Amino acid sequence: MSDTTMQAALGQQLMARLDDAARHSQPGPGVTRLFCSDEHRAVLELIADWMRQAGLSPELDASGNLVGRNERARQGERTLIMGSHQDTVAEGGKYDGMLGVALPLQALQALKEAGTELPYGVEVVAFGDEEGTRFQSTLIGSRALAGTFDPESLNARDADGVTLGEALKAFGGNPQEIPHLARRPEAVIGFVEVHIEQGPVLEQRDHALGVVTALTGIERHRMVVMGKAGHAGTTPMPGRRDALVGAAEMVVEADRILNATDDLVGVVGKLEVRPNAVNVIPAEVNFTLELRSPHTGLREQGRREVLEACQRLAQARGLELSSERTYQAEGVDCADWLVEALEQACRGCEEPAERMFSGAGHDGLAMHGLTDIGMLFVRCRDGLSHHPDEAISVEDAGRATQVLMRFLTDLGKDARSRR
Predict the structure, then answer these.
(1) For residue 416, pLDDT beyond 60
(2) pLDDT of residue 419
(3) DSSP SS3 for 65
(4) Which residues constitute the domain of residue 272?
(5) Are both 98 and 117 inside the same structural domain?
(6) 215-225: per-residue pLDDT in tens?
(7) Given pLDDT bands bounded at 50, 70 and 90, which one contains residue 354?
(8) Max Cα–Cα distance, the chain, nearest Å
(9) Does 372 lie in the same domain as 288?
(10) What is the DSSP string of 150-165?
(11) How far apart are CA 288 and CA 75, in angstroms?
(12) Entry pTM
């Protein structure tokens, strides 16, 4: 079989598997598959079958991850961990997360069928919860493996009042056993994730693949603007303390600052107005501010500039502004040796792969606390993600699978996998 024919076959089989996984979704547009849901349970049966075909033994762990291990991993040899998350945002796409589960299993199955035995342990993980859609919790499964799981997160509740701990027990997990899932750093070679880019850079460069150098740091703030309600028809315009007008100016100023700063992005993604009546001057506005950058100092500088500007705007209109940081995760660098190894695999498959950073968070943010991390991006159409129209091509799916196969076989020749 020629390389081109093999690439096409790999791509077609991978896309078929991703289509099968997407069927396990709540009704409605796109894919909605939440942590510890019926859809989660159903898709794990499918993934477990892929694992067995790849020569791995699947097992549901205490935190809701499905983990597949080859014989060497089960015997305690040093192990390369690969994988991504199975959960989605509401009405998301087929490929965010699931690509990083299906593709390494496809690559391992192809190597097995070719008679290639890897001289190190391999573990593929379908992480249970990365998006945080159901419980507003993130990286539950990867934090469990990294040994940084916070037991307090078990008390988080979904919209129906069910706690994360209760849902895990019903799903077959065991919250009390989660601390025992932590891997020993000396037993792990590294962690590698394949993921759609979720941005337009690869498409603009006309490249199928990219090698990630760093994962972005993220922080989120809850902003509260307090003004004074009044009759919209009888209160003169001068002197009004309109919280919504003030908040609107803050959003525009935040956007200006972000546009003027390289490697810093952000968004005001949620906004609530009170009393939210057609003929009442808004008295209170709550909005979220999210900032992202792979450079901690740059993100902190951007935060200071945005918050100081918002305070100035509030004072100018006689408004009160308070802010509370609700989430923070520091950016992390990918290991140089994994970046270089993925680049070498791309070159070996005659695929250009420029270095780039990820503007999204991934399970690697947690896994970095355990081991070296590496990441391979796959081009997505229009840079679209978290959307029903999220798409990759059959050709790119095949290219990425071949590159990962090359990476895995090259790693077997590298002393790092045997130290």
Answers:
(1) no
(2) 57
(3) coil
(4) 217-329
(5) yes
(6) 989 999 999 99
(7) confident
(8) 82
(9) no
(10) -GGGGG-B-TTS-BHH
(11) 48
(12) 0.85
